[in-house]
Specification:
2 domains, two-stranded antiparallel sheet, 4 helices, elongated
């Protein structure tokens, strides 16, 4: 019961990189606290949306295992940072 009331009051605020975007999703926990559901949502954006743009957001720019391994190898070889950055630009874009 405590968990349910706590989760229903807990709100995460997240801003988009495009200010003024009307898109939102409100998620709630059911009474038994065994699953979550979308209580309200608005999917209207005031900016272009695409998978390509989504991948460019800072929180989505991650290296995979192969790329991390390559960077670790270059670090062990004491490769200069600008060379590592250029290598990343050419391999992952």
């Amino acid at each position: 019961m405590f968990l349910n009331s706590l989760l229903n009051k807990y709100i995460i605020y997240h801003r988009t990189y495009k200010l003024g975007c009307e898109m939102f999703i409100y998620v709630r926990v059911n009474k038994d606290a065994d699953h979550m559901y979308i209580a309200r949502s608005c999917h209207t954006h005031n900016h272009e949306t695409s998978q390509t743009l989504f991948q460019l957001y800072p929180e989505n720019r991650n290296l995979d295992g192969k790329e991390l391994s390559s960077i670790e190898n270059m670090m062990n070889l004491k490769v200069k940072a600008h060379v590592m950055c250029e290598e990343l630009r050419t391999t992952i874009g």
